[in-house]
Hints:
Strands 3-2-1-4-5-6-7 form a seven-stranded parallel beta sheet. Strands 10-11-9-8-12-13-14 form a seven-stranded parallel beta sheet. By secondary structure, it is of the alpha/beta class. It is 46% helix and 16% strand. The protein folds into two domains: 31-212 and 399-409, Rossmann fold (3-Layer(aba) Sandwich), CATH 3.40.50.11720; 214-397, Glycogen Phosphorylase B (Rossmann fold), CATH 3.40.50. Helix 12 crosses helix 17 (366-378).
Amino acid sequence: MELIYKIGISLFSLTVRFASLFNEKAKQFVGGRKEWKKTLKNQVEKDARYIWFHCASLGEFEQGRPVIEEVKSQFPEYKIVLTFFSPSGYEIRKNYEGADVISYLPLDTKRNAQAFIDIVKPEKVFFIKYEFWYFFISELKERNISLYIISAIFRENQQFFKNTFWGRWYRQTLFKFEHFFVQNETSAQLLKNIGLNNISVAGDTRFDRVAAIAKAAKKIPAVEKFKGEHLLFIAGSTWKPDEELLIEFINQYGNAKFIIAPHEVSSANVNRIHELLKRPAISMSKITETEIEKYEVLIIDSIGMLSSLYQYGNVAYIGGGFGVGIHNILEAATFGMPIVFGPNYKKFKEAVDLISEGGAFSIDKYSELEQLFLRFISEKRFVNDTKEITRKYVEKNVGSTKFIIKKVFNTANHLD
């Protein structure tokens, strides 16, 4: 089976190299790994002590970030190595100040794993959520370097839990981890069913991240002035199907104000949204504080503002639910907002949880959105009750980072 795995990695390497001839992301994937040994050696300090964090991409980085920053704060004697598999993570966070060394993860071959670990010499290693690279994991185990996985979530249909030749072979990778910090009891039980017991249900570190974001939210006086005394709907990370439903409602009803923060902020897309709107609308880049209160719709045509915008909202609509899946709902939930999204949400535990608790709502068509939004506008108690549910949901899930740190580093008040 190891030979088949090696062949698979080689085929993947050939495929991505071919794709790099005409695909920008594949080009970054290949180019970022050129002369990686030389680059890594130049960044790593010979006598420094390192802890290595690995993320697949940007979403996993956001889960790992609270732990990285807690380690940095509590244990300054360590330096941080941060690796990414995907260009979409590396290219956006390659200048992240919380890490001392940031690199692409080399492809998973025995030679690469040995060379990488020889250079970094990590004392502890954290993989975020998933990423089960056979040779890296095996090499860490062989050298008795503790490997942890945090914010992990497992599903019954994963290869580890299948009684096939491949499943049984790949399953052995899991037995090389020092400890599993999983998000839920289902994941813990799946691991226990195959004979693993080094498990803690620690929750999702993203709750710690969004709680920190909420505390650091920047004030935006122009948005405060735009809202005034009105109920404010904030639609974050929207796509075209989301926007069509939202705009149909906005054009019919003038009892509230709306902020639309599209996922795509190109001038062409922003202009398209403007053209569909029949209500007074303005882009964020064109506002003047003296007149913004005259508008009913504010369109955000830049990135990086959304997490701070939520502090002014009464109701959140999160985009992506009519595509591959919804975007981050926790940034809105941490401010205590009712949350609405499209039908493709079932892969997201927090969405499923909040729907079951009554803090979030899924809509499948315009009539459902219309009915729900009109209820938010007309029933203040409904808004307040729902806000309380989302606020408490985030509150009760904060604390995963501190739990992990106590368990891994055996600090005071250790939680068993």
